[in-house]
């Protein structure tokens, strides 16, 4: 363990971002990642007012020229500068629901940990989230092949530290989409990112099926009740991928419904190579 910490020193805590923004009096129940009833425009206005200390003007962001950092069903991520700080700006599609967007922002205001991507603020028009700018994702790194076991251990400790923090909050935050694409690489280690479908949980969540198939816990696949333990399952799959340098279930010609059913029924797990296990133990 000492060799790992000497080669990859653990970072000191980042500068505090200020106290979490209180949710009381917003008129909206944000727990479990959903609203209990359809919010009114007044509810949305109250919630936005609670968040106003983190709201910034879109025209104060200077975007870099060149290709975007990524894009998907949510929208697009581009690099830029805000308040003389390099930032990544996640711009959501215009059709994104106001309350869904503000719920994600509210959740990010609660988080302040060196293993989680740093949140700076948000804009309402257009809807975007401003975060620290990091390099590549863990997925990009894994495209070059498996990682050395000592680095895997360092990275595993980084992700575990971030998850422990999220799961210790009150109410707990369950990420619900932990995978290499949502883990970013910084100079001092890894950061957990993308809280778009994360949820605040007390006890167990309702049976909401969400996430990415090959990293999803069986109980989530089956839309059963689940807790933060679903993140731990996803973490195990990510660890497997770091050590193997391949996507889970890569041996399948087609990752279809049959494989999803087998995973959900706990009949299939990624296969551990005996040779890999033995070499990892030696290192």
Task: Give the helix/strand layout.
Elements: H1 2-7, H2 41-50, E1 61-63, E2 70-72, E3 75-82, E4 85-92, H3 98-109, E5 119-124, E6 127-132, H4 138-142, H5 149-168, E7 172-174, E8 183-186, E9 189-192, E10 199-201, H6 218-221, H7 229-244, H8 257-264, H9 274-282
Structure summarized in a few sentences:
The chain contains nine helices and ten strands. By secondary structure, the protein is an alpha+beta fold. It has two domains: about 15-130, 2-Layer Sandwich (Phosphorylase Kinase, domain 1); about 140-280, Transferase(Phosphotransferase), domain 1 (Orthogonal Bundle), CATH 1.10.510.
Architecture overview:
Keywords: ATP-binding, Kinase, Nucleotide-binding, Serine/threonine-protein kinase, Transferase. ATP binds at residue 90. The chain is α+β, with helices and mostly antiparallel strands and 283 residues long. The protein is 32% helix and 17% strand. The strands form 3 sheets. Strands 1, 2, 3, 4, 5 and 6 form a 6-stranded antiparallel beta sheet that branches. It has a two-stranded antiparallel ribbon with strand order 7-10. A hairpin with a 2-residue loop joins β5 and β6. The protein is globular. The protein starts with a helix and ends with a helix. 33% of the residues are buried. Residues 1-37 have low confidence and may be disordered.
């Amino acid at each position: 363990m000492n060799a790992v910490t000497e080669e990859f020193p653990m970072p000191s805590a980042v500068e505090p971002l200020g106290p979490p923004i209180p949710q009381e009096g917003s008129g909206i129940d944000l727990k479990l990642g959903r609203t209990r009833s359809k919010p009114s425009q007044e509810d949305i206005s109250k919630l936005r007012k609670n968040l106003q200390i983190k709201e910034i003007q879109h025209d104060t962001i200077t975007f870099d020229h060149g290709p975007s950092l990524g894009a998907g069903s949510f929208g697009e991520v581009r690099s830029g500068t805000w308040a003389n700080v390099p930032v990544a700006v996640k711009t959501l599609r215009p059709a994104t629901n106001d309350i869904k967007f503000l719920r994600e922002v509210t959740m990010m205001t609660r988080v302040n940990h060196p293993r989680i991507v740093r949140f700076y603020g948000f804009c309402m028009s257009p809807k975007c989230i401003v975060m620290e700018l990091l390099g590549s994702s863990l997925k990009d790194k894994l495209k070059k092949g498996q990682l050395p076991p000592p680095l895997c251990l360092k990275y595993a400790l980084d992700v575990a530290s971030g998850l422990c923090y999220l799961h210790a909050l009150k109410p707990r935050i369950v990420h619900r989409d932990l995978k290499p694409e949502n883990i970013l690489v910084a100079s001092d280690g890894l950061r957990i990112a993308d809280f778009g479908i994360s949820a605040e949980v007390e006890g167990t969540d309702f049976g909401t099926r969400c996430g990415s198939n090959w990293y999803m816990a069986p109980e989530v696949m089956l839309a059963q009740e689940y807790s933060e333990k679903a993140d731990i399952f996803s973490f195990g799959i990510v660890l497997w991928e770091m050590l193997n340098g391949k996507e889970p279930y890569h041996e399948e010609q087609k990752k279809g419904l049959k494989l999803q059913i087998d995973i959900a029924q706990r009949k299939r797990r990624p296969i551990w190579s005996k040779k890999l296990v033995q070499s990892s133990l030696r290192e």
